[in-house]
Fold this protein.
Amino acid sequence: MKDGMSGKDFFALAFGSMIGIGWVISIPAWMSAAGSIGAIIAILVTMLMIIPIGFVYGELTSSLKVSGGEYAYTYLAVGKLSAFVCGWFLILGYLIILPWVAVSVAALTSYLIPAMNAIPLYSLFGSVIYLPHLIVSLIMVTIIVYLNYKGVKQSSKFQNIATWMMIATFFVFIIGGFVAGSSENISQTTSESGTIGGVASAIASILFFMNGFDTIPKARNEVGSTINRADLGKAIVGTIIAGSLLYSVIVLASSFIMPAEELVNLGELPLISAFEAATGSKFLTIIIVFGVLLGVITTFNGFLFAGSRLIQSFSEAGFLPKVLSKVDHNNKTPKNALLFMLLITILGIFLGQGILSPFIVMGGISFLIAWFFMSLSSVQLYRKKPNLHRPYSPPGGIIMSYIATFFSSILTLMMIIPGTPISLHGIEYILFLVWLIVGIVMYFSYSKNKIKIKEDVQKVG
């Protein structure tokens, strides 16, 4: 990397952001809901729904030479209000993910060092906050924020190394699972409640863990001068496919290790506990925990990198207070946006996982809203700028954009409408309305500002 990020850097950013701690915690739940084969079906169905959205992301990211990502594309294609809604909810998604990931780092570390579960300070919503947990989370957050403050080269280099080390540990888990496990443990290939209901229930959770590819548009202005713009689209779609296939293979390996009905009863990190029981190797288990830790940290680094640039650009455009748009002159990094995200993350760490858990579903709907506006923007650009140069052109053209719009709108509605398999629940509806109301206030406070989107008009069309 001479002067910016390469295609491999973008893939590491997106893939490292997608694969974190979720697989260790959630795969047993997917298997319990849908069965071992049903869980794989759920992953592949989710992948097929997300790929059209990935095509849209790849097309717009490679075609439009603007900074800011989703909201900027939406502004150009649809308008100011839609751009604000897109950016406002996307910011919520990033602000939710960071503290949850930071708390997870301490939980993983305590698995290796049980003595960390000492010196309880207080309890919130059934979650005990321990002093050593706070210290570990705060140290990790401070280091990653510092790397991002020092510039794209440092954070990108770290992301590359950590992502490939994480992938290596997945092979240890997969090979160990197949060798130490047995096909006799695949006792439940589909859920007892029925395949369709079980698969639908699993999809509801899988959707949240499929984001990460959407970090790439926010890093659009970090592109190196020698990169082929089509590589941005390939990195986005490749991340979705690679992540889905990896999840599927891990489900299959997990099925060999232990039946799903037993996995779900093994505490906070069920797959790690099951792997240790099956292999009898503490050393291999430590390697797996190390890999999961890397996954958690790359997730934090990726979303911090993308989120800080989103907030900085959103502020610079005129949608937020100008103070958040300040850039460090020496490092060329969004210092005030990074500081803001650091403060929110620290607050979340002190609140603990008990309070953060209800916010996770909010993260899911936040990304779905952004996916919808991206898909709608693609449709509008095909109409407004049919001759737009598209370095990465998805198969089907506008038809693919319509498919992406359909899937993203249906999934968003299913989260908002009560009673669906993926709908919000009581407190989540309240949180959604609160963020919406605050957004309305912010929009009318700043909507009179002249919105400035950095754009090369000659190159856009």
Summary: The first strand starts at residue 120 and ends at 124. DSSP finds 17 helices and two strands in the chain. The longest helix spans residues 282-317. The domain at 7-412 is CATH 1.20.1740.10 (Amino acid/polyamine transporter I).
